[in-house]
Amino acid sequence: MGGLLLSVFRKGNYELTRRVLVFTTLVLLWPLVQRMVLAFDVRSGYVDPGIVVLIVISMLCFLMVIGMSLWLLKGFLIYLGLPSPGVLALKIKEMDVWVQLSFYLACFALLLFAGVGCLAAVL
User: In terms of CB atoms within 10 Å, which of 17, 68, 70, 108 comes out highest?
Assistant: First the structure.
């Protein structure tokens, strides 16, 4: 387990290191945010720390679903003999503007529903 954690900080792993640092910073800032809310309005209630764990678990599940979806998409594209996702992205830019917008809105809606579903499954 220690080797896995240390592999995050190796040279050339900047994207993963950045994600881990942002995640750690957000988790460590949570108690500070609670104190700031209590200092701003004394009538506000204390948020149970267990809720933070549930939110973190739902975010991890959401990211895992996104990763598995990308893996499945690449596998299906290879199996069906279709072009890579990079080539498909270039083909989207050749579409009409209204088709691009409807495609982007549909993708956003699917992504939003997947995130809400993961949050609902954990809670």
Answer: 17
